[in-house]
Amino acid sequence: MIRVEVVALEPGGGRQISRQDRVTELLRERALDIEAAIAEAARIAGTGLVSSHQHGDWQVTSLEARFGLTLTAEAGVIVGKASTEACFEITLTVQRRE
Amino acid sequence: MGKQDYWVEISFRGMPCGAGFLLTRRHVLTAAHCLRRRGVKQSDGVVVSRDSGQSVEGTVLEVDPGRDVALIRVNAKLGWAVQPVVTDRGEKGDEWMSPYRPEPADPELKGWVLTNATGFESSGGATIEALELQVRQMLGDYSGYSGSPVQLERHGGPGLGAPVAVIGMLIEQDLHRVRRAEATNVLFAITVAEAIGAFEDLQLPAQFSRLGPPPVAETVSEAAGRHFAGARASIAEIKAMVDEGLVSDMELTEQTKALLRMAGQRTIDWAGGHESAR
Question: Where is the Peptidase S1 domain (chain B) (predicted)?
Fold first, then answer.
């Protein structure tokens, strides 16, 4: 049984200083959220690759996307993917066409 | 840990909510967001505990999410003596401390008042009167301290059991502008006057009703009257504790002396401040 830590989103974005308990949920119960976030991130990265694939003599030959996921919860209720945080790190390899 | 703490911890269904403090022996003030985080609503039952483990049941009377304050009624007689509280207005340069620690290993916060009470937009959405406090301990995150009373620091004062001057209640931290997940060493405390103003029907002793801004043209004798009225109200509270067998006559005498000394000192400080302002 694998558990995953989730964070509560608070009004004021962390200004209020009540207790911050570590809350975990079963990973399998958040599987759909995680899959949806990965699919959305992959779609965005792929769309970006297509639109920047070729510029004159230069072309993008590879793209590496790294991102993290933070699962959120509020009073034990899953907030949903709209509030899921994702931080992108994109690495492009650009080569001159021969 | 004094034997007559006035600050408490509030819990709901066995889970700690946060700090609070006894305005009177029947009323506890705390931060509304401490209760909201546990799903506590008006009329819910909570447990009010002191650090030594003694506890009493309470009921949430009113919640003001905008001001971020909540009032809890204590349902039975407290089984312990409460350190008398004198409320005061903190001023820029005052030294402050907060006696509540979220966990035993957490530090007791101390520092200086940075500004006189001023308008502050709380996360709850209301513009409230609050004190901006510099804190000495650089923790990076002050979670767990909400609801803690802020009292004036006393150096070489009358000692354990003597009255404390409470100027506010901790509610928020200032976040670093670049590293948003990190707090600066500035905290915000709602003033006692603003907090109790949220509860119009609350009947409080005289020292609380005199927390409005002092008249601009107040004379020394009027200021003395204001300070000594607060002391007399606190003495009356302690006398009630004597009747309940919680405080001895000797303690009453000592605390009466301390309260009168404090009222005298506050009058002298007031006069000195007005003299230097001229």
Answer: 2-89
Topology (CATH level 3) of domain B85-197: Thrombin, subunit H (2.40.10)
Which positions in chain B touch A19 (Cβ < 8 Å)? Answer: 16-18, 34, 37, 102, 143-144, 146
Q: Which of A18, A22, A87 to mutate to test the interface with B (most CBs of B within 10 A)?
A: A18
Q: Is the ipTM value over 0.85, yes or no?
A: no
Nearest to A16 among B16, B33, B39 (CB): B33
Q: Which chain A residues touch B124 with a CB distance below 8 Å?
A: 11
Tens digits of residue pLDDT in B16-54: 999 999 988 889 999 999 999 888 999 999 999 998 889
Cβ atoms of B202 and B71 closer than 8 Å: yes
Q: Are B165 and B96 in contact (CB under 8 A)?
A: no
- Residue B176: phi and psi, rounded to 5, are -60, 135
User: Least CA distance to B17: which residue of chain A?
Assistant: A19
* Shared fold status for B7-74 and B85-197: yes
Mean pLDDT by 10 residues, chain A (98 residues): 76 80 79 82 81 75 78 48 54 82
Mean pLDDT, chain B, whole residue set: 84
Are B191 and B166 in contact by the 8 Å Cβ rule? The answer is no
Exposed, middle or buried, B249 (CB in 10 Å: 0-12/13-18/19+)? Answer: exposed
Domain spans, chain B: 7-74, 85-197, 206-277
CATH fold label, B7-74 = Thrombin, subunit H (2.40.10)
Residue B172 has its nearest CB partner, among A12, A19, A75, at A12
